[in-house]
Amino acid sequence: MEGTFTFQYGFAVIDGSKGYVLDTDFAVESVDWADAIPSLTRLNQQSYELFRWAIGPSTLEHLRSTDPHRKQHRHSLTCP
Predict the structure, then answer these.
(1) How many CB atoms lie under 10 A from the CB of residue 48?
(2) What would the pLDDT profile of 29-39 be if each residue is shown by its tens digit?
(3) Which of 3, 25, 28, 32 has the largest CB neighbor count within 10 A?
(4) Rounded distance, CA 34 to CA 50, Å?
């Protein structure tokens, strides 16, 4: 599956609080109806992998340790 993505990032003020924003957009064109779900699944996986890469392991661990609603499961990452 061929596709494109944009990745924008930077500091921002949201609702009066300073923060850092990661904005990703993934797209693929000319997908057959029968391939829609597998294509969306792959785009979701690629988005998750980019997010994990962008925040790094220490931020990911911090987010996991401070989320009181975190479910106890792990995602499996694969690289194409």
Answers:
(1) 13
(2) 889 999 899 99
(3) 28
(4) 26
